[in-house]
């Protein structure tokens, strides 16, 4: 199947993104996004589902060098 140039550029952009879904998105969505090649960590996977945004950001900055 031939994809238009804009679609290829969009796919490249998405695969370069890193996502951190919160509780509004189920854990299974994080798995599906990873399967699609998008770097994804769900807050529930790092035991921070009840944490405030600032606490999550501090944790990510100190524990995940690629964020």
In short:
The chain is built from 3 helices and 2 strands, in the order αβαβα.
Q: What's the structural blueprint in terms of helices and strands?
A:
Blueprint: H1 5-16, E1 18-19, H2 27-35, E2 39-40, H3 53-63
Parallel strand pairs: 1-2
Describe this structure in words.
Mean pLDDT is 75; it is low at 3-8. The chain is built from 3 helices and 2 strands, in the order H-E-H-E-H. It has a domain at 23-67. The chain has a two-stranded parallel sheet with strand order 1-2. 48% of the residues lie in helices and 6% in strands. It starts with a helix and ends with a helix. With 67 residues, it is mainly alpha-helical.
Number of helices: 3
Please give the radius of gyration in angstroms: 14 Å
Which descriptor suits the 3D outline? globular
N/C terminus separation = 34 Å
Low-confidence stretches: 3-8
Structural class: mainly alpha
Q: Helical amount among residues, as a percent range?
A: 40-55%
Number of strands: 2
SSE pattern: HEHEH
Q: What would the average pLDDT be, to the nearest integer?
A: 75
Strand order of the largest sheet: 1-2
Percent strand: 5-15%
Largest sheet: 2 strands, parallel
């Amino acid at each position: 199947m031939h994809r238009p140039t804009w679609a290829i550029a969009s796919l490249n952009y998405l695969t370069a993104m890193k996502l951190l879904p919160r509780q509004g998105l189920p854990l299974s969505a994080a798995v599906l996004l990873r399967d699609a090649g998008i770097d994804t960590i769900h807050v529930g996977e790092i035991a921070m589902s009840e944490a405030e945004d600032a606490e999550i950001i501090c944790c990510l900055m100190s524990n995940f060098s690629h964020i």
